[in-house]
Automatic annotation (TrEMBL):
Protein name stated in the entry: DUF3224 domain-containing protein
């Protein structure tokens, strides 16, 4: 069951590169980004990257990872997986799941919880994401 909205973030793509696909698969686009927002009500800065590979049906298979930190030093790492589509305006839209790891007391409520996300990236590289708890 989906729970409460636990995170929201806005960010910017900071770099991209195309790498060859493995075993005859299509190339993968690696994208790095920075973002800021809140996670469990805590202000955070996020640094992450994701790889997206175009599949035969035109959808994107995405894998992501990152680290985030609050101004007070609370920190967490995360890994996500999802599926995306290209938008008519030249951006991408992803849906998927994220799992966090942290020993910071501020993020104790992330233990044992998967998050489901919506992540939109415009053609201008501006990004916006939301995350709900999946309990």
């Amino acid at each position: 069951m989906l729970g409460d909205l636990i995170a929201e973030e806005r960010g910017q793509v900071t770099g991209q590169r195309v790498v060859p696909g493995d075993h005859g698969l299509s190339p993968t686009v690696e994208t790095s980004f920075t973002g800021s927002g809140t996670l469990l009500g805590v202000t955070v800065n996020d640094l992450g990257s994701y790889s997206a590979r175009m599949r035969a049906d035109g959808t994107l298979k995405g894998d992501a990872q990152g680290v985030l930190m609050s101004p007070s030093g609370a920190h967490a790492t995360w890994r996500g997986h999802g599926v995306g589509t290209s938008t008519d305006s030249g951006g991408t839209s992803f849906r998927g799941a994220i799992v966090y790891e942290s020993d910071s007391p501020e993020f104790a409520d992330l233990r044992g919880v998967a998050g489901v996300f919506e992540f939109e990236v415009g053609a201008d590289g501006k990004a916006h994401g939301k995350l709900w708890a999946w309990k």
